TrEMBL record:
This is histidine kinase. It is an enzyme of class 2 (transferase). It comes from Bacteroides clarus. The keyword Nucleotide-binding applies. InterPro entries: HATPase_C_sf (IPR036890), HATPase_dom (IPR003594), His_kinase_dom (IPR005467), Sig_transdc_His_kin-like_C (IPR004358). SUPFAM superfamilies: ATPase domain of HSP90 chaperone/DNA topoisomerase II/histidine kinase (SSF55874). It catalyses: ATP + protein L-histidine = ADP + protein N-phospho-L-histidine.
């Protein structure tokens, strides 16, 4: 079930929330719900969003993860009361190697990767943010297999050294883990 994947990632950040004195909550209305998704990709999505939320949320603020069904979609939202993203930077936030500020360490590929992985699942991502008030990244994923063509459904999972290969959309997607940064390299088959 999708709740278990999200809960695992949520719990990973629990000690950091305690250390930073951040109110940290998971609100889930989808226990037992299963959707067609790659759990490894979903983990990358959640980890990137939570990592950013903790990076830009100060002590005494809050981070909330929401899971609920909205019609034929599942909403996965990471919402914080952190620094927020300046309006002039929001349009570029999903561009590869773009960073809204240079104060925090990062490569600028996290949100680009998130958007690409959401796209692979026929989903969409929306950003609501106000500078000084926080941000909400809302991901909508289809809950029905009919959102996918038969040839898009993953057909194999193999481990190749430190790489993992998934066949989706008649393309092999390689997940490469390099110095804690994840990137997707698309190779036409």
């Amino acid at each position: 079930p999708i709740h278990k994947v999200i809960e695992k990632d949520f719990l990973f950040y629990d000690r950091l929330a305690q250390r930073k004195r951040i109110a940290y909550n998971l609100s889930s209305e989808v226990e037992g719900k299963e959707i067609l998704c790659d759990p490894n990709y979903l983990e990358l999505i959640v980890n990137n969003l939570l990592s950013n939320a903790f990076k830009y949320t100060d002590e005494g603020k809050s981070i909330t993860v929401v899971l609920r069904e909205t019609g034929k979609e599942l909403l996965l939202q990471v919402r914080d009361t952190g620094n927020g993203i300046p309006i002039d930077k929001q349009a570029k936030i999903f561009e590869r190697f773009y960073q809204a500020d240079n104060e925090h360490m990062g490569s600028g590929i996290g949100l680009s990767l998130v958007q690409r992985l959401v796209d692979l699942h026929h989903g969409r991502i929306e950003l609501e943010s106000r500078e000084g008030e926080g941000s909400a990244f809302s991901i909508y994923l289809p809950t029905e297999e009919t959102a996918y063509r038969p040839e898009e459904i993953a057909t194999r999972t193999n481990a190749i050294g430190e790489q993992q290969v998934y066949t989706t959309n008649n393309q092999d997607m390689y997940i490469v883990d390099t110095e804690d940064e994840k990137e997707v390299i698309k190779e036409e088959t």
